[in-house]
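Support request from a user on the community tier.

User writes: "When I paste my structure tokens into the form, the page sometimes reloads and wipes my input. The last time it worked, I copied everything first. Here is what I submitted, just in case something in the input itself triggers the reload:"
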């Protein structure tokens, strides 16, 4: 969302209205009273509950798209927050990161976000926006927030006035600083990183970790140049900070994203369909979590390996030859044999979720002389539903837990341990 852009854009020392005063002059009592009434009519709810719900909403959204991190805290009492601006996602990042006690309000373009009732509701309720006019009176709209600042709120503005390109900060307009001086509250610089990757200018949404770093408060008398330098330093520091990661995860991701990863996925699934006791989902759990971008390729390749291996197992069983099948039981084979005799190739539809290994179905289908074409069609649907679902689910988990990549070895230990326990319970249950 874009609230905040024009609140900062009109934060220059003058407006386009020829009758308006400059940033260094005090507005008339009548103009101030009128602007105050207009702004308060559009102001978002001051309830901490509403602010907390808004924060939770955007935190959940950003968590689903890669995560959000915050360093530092706002000072006690009201303050004017000034931040770099490179993406429409900056507003969501700040609403998710700033604490609800300050009930942050975001300056938004009155002629766009408040041009119709439904837009104003969206802006006020989802982005805590308040209107700032672009065609005259914008400074008065900002100054009308002085009482809210004195009451302990945080007012968020992007002093560049528009989204920057390539991470470069533009010059800062004065309006945010005039507002801070009028209310007698500090100016708090904030650096945002990751939103330009999450939602690039003129680009599409993609997963990325967003980080927000809150700096030390500056006095209300600070100059635009000093405020800009403080935000620029925070932005550079946040952007340059390496995401803590695990060497094991990086190595697994490097293999998983390359040709070796595809070959391993195919051979693992192929062998499991013949005799190998460890399901390919174990491999997908390790690889897709480490390299979410490769999840679809790895899952599709594992599916192809499973189908190829099952066709070979089918043909071998049809000739009376079957490879060893460790961690399977007589009860499994008897149950599958009965199901295949009744339903033919369609019996494999129950395999993904009943715990019986895929290879047992392939062998019993071969012994029952199930046609290879029927078997391939039925097993592709059944096996594909599980393999693709599991691979993409682990990839989604890897995206959601991106910020915890440094704990990848612990994740692997948990994955292997859970798999071992689950496999033991399944085999015991089928004895």
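"...and here is what came back when it finally went through:"
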């Amino acid at each position: 969302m874009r609230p905040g852009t024009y609140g900062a854009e009109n934060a220059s020392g003058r407006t386009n209205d020829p009758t308006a005063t400059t940033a260094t002059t005090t507005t008339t009592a009548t103009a101030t009273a009128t602007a105050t009434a207009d702004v308060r009519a559009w102001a978002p709810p001051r309830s901490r509950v509403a602010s907390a719900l808004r924060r939770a909403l955007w935190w959940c959204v950003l968590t689903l798209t890669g995560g959000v991190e915050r360093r530092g805290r706002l000072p006690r009492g009201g303050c004017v927050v000034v931040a770099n601006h490179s993406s429409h996602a900056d507003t969501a990042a700040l609403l998710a990161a700033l604490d609800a006690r300050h009930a942050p309000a975001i300056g938004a373009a009155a002629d766009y976000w408040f041009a119709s009732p439904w837009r104003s509701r969206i802006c006020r309720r989802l982005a805590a926006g308040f209107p700032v006019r672009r065609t005259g009176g914008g400074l008065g709209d900002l100054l009308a927030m002085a009482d809210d600042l004195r009451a302990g709120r945080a007012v968020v503005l992007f002093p560049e006035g528009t989204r920057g390109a390539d991470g470069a900060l533009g010059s800062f307009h004065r309006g945010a600083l005039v507002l801070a001086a009028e209310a007698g509250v500090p100016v708090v610089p904030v650096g945002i990183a990751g939103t330009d990757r999450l939602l690039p200018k003129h680009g599409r949404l993609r997963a990325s970790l967003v980080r927000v770093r809150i700096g030390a408060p500056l006095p209300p008398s600070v100059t635009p140049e000093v405020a800009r330098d403080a935000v620029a330093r925070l932005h550079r520091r946040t952007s340059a900070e390496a995401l803590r990661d695990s060497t094991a995860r990086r190595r697994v991701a490097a293999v998983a994203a390359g040709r070796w990863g595809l070959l391993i996925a195919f051979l693992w699934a192929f062998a499991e369909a013949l005799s190998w006791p460890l399901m390919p989902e174990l491999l997908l759990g390790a690889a897709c979590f480490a390299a979410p971008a490769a999840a679809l390729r790895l899952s599709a390749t594992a599916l192809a390996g499973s189908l190829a291996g099952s066709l070979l197992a089918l043909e071998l069983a049809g000739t009376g030859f079957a490879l060893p099948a460790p961690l399977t039981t007589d009860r499994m084979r008897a149950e599958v044999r009965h199901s295949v005799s009744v339903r033919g190739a369609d019996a494999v539809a129950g395999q993904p979720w009943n715990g019986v290994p895929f290879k047992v179905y392939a062998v019993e289908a071969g012994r029952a002389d199930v046609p290879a074409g029927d078997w391939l069609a039925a097993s592709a649907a059944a096996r594909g539903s599980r393999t693709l679902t599991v691979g993409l689910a682990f990839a989604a988990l890897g995206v959601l837990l991106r910020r915890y990549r440094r704990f990848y070895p612990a994740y692997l230990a948990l994955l292997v341990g859970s798999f071992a326990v689950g496999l033991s319970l399944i085999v015991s249950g089928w004895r």
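Agent notes: The reload is a front-end session timeout and is unrelated to the input. The chain has 20 helices and seven strands. The beta strands are 68-71, 79-83, 105-109, 129-132, 154-157, 187-193, 210-214. Escalated to web team.
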